[in-house]
Design a protein that fits this description.
By secondary structure, the protein is mainly alpha-helical. The chain is built from eight helices and two strands, in the order αααααααββα. It has a two-stranded antiparallel sheet. α1 (about 1-15) packs across α4, α1 (about 1-15) packs antiparallel against α7 and α2 (about 20-25) packs antiparallel against α5 (about 120-150).
Length: about 260
């Protein structure tokens, strides 16, 4: 089972390309166009993914013109508007779950098992944190946008939903085909079984004294590696449970308040 879980984690990191993954595996050395491009696109992704949704929430701009009280829950939309809002919100939650089981899983795998230095590890941590912040901020922003425009055209609701969905995946949209192909190839090379040990990239040694976790256990996986796999799997289950329960409550509340 552990080998299967490890393979699943590795597959997520290879198949789910993001600008954070590209910056992580970008060749070291003198500053090149690849470094400049990666850093610039990462800043753009962070801004769109976190700053814009947070600004919408802080300013409360979408609901400033709502005359009913409370402004955050006027309950003024028609039945069909509420249905549209609920379905679009449900799609948003489904997208968040997909990101948790793909992009976040892949970034987590790289952080735990592929060590390329502290600076590159920080890039991954920034990516992971920005995903969680972006998910929460985009959800809150979509709530306010739907409330503020619930009495208007259905097209506006769809466009606003698409905008918030884009905020969640902008770091993936900024990767072109060639960069995505290069990133996947590099991750595949850096995450081979022979390179994975308890500190990330390294070598497995059957004669290891066990301190580094290199000795292979009865499962075919070094104990330290097995511990990290179990931690990631359990953490993912907890995150998914929180997302699903919170998401359902969020969808229902939005449908009522819109």
């Amino acid at each position: 089972r552990l080998l299967s879980d490890l393979s699943s984690l590795r597959t997520s990191s290879i198949d789910t390309k993001s600008i954070f993954g590209f910056c992580f595996v970008c060749p070291s050395g003198k500053t090149s166009w690849a470094h400049i491009y990666g850093f610039t696109m990462m800043i753009i992704a962070l801004f769109i993914q976190t700053v814009i949704p947070i600004a919408i929430i802080v300013t409360r701009q979408p609901i400033l013109d709502v005359e009913e009280t409370p402004q955050a829950c006027p309950n003024r939309g028609s039945v069909f508007t509420k249905v549209i809002g609920f379905v679009l919100s449900l799609y948003f939650v489904t997208l968040v779950i997909s990101l948790c089981t793909n992009k976040l899983r892949g970034l987590g795998f790289l952080l735990q098992f592929v060590y390329l230095g502290k600076k590159r590890a920080i890039l991954l941590m920034i990516g992971i944190v920005s995903q969680f912040v972006g998910m929460g901020a985009a959800g809150g922003a979509q709530f306010l946008l739907f409330i503020g425009n619930g009495g208007k055209s259905y097209v506006i609701l769809v466009l606003q939903s698409l905008a918030m969905n884009f905020c969640l995946t902008v770091d993936q949209q900024l990767i072109g085909h060639q960069i995505a192909k290069y990133t996947s190839h590099r991750i595949a090379k850096l995450s081979e079984d022979s390179l994975i040990c308890d500190v990330g990239v390294g070598s497995l040694d059957d004669n290891d004294d066990g301190e580094g976790g290199g000795k292979v256990g009865s499962t075919g996986v070094p104990p330290a590696v097995a511990s990290k796999i179990n931690l990631m799997i359990q953490s993912e289950k907890m995150v998914l449970l929180v997302v699903m329960t919170t998401g359902i409550a969020w969808c229902a509340t939005l449908a009522y308040c819109i």
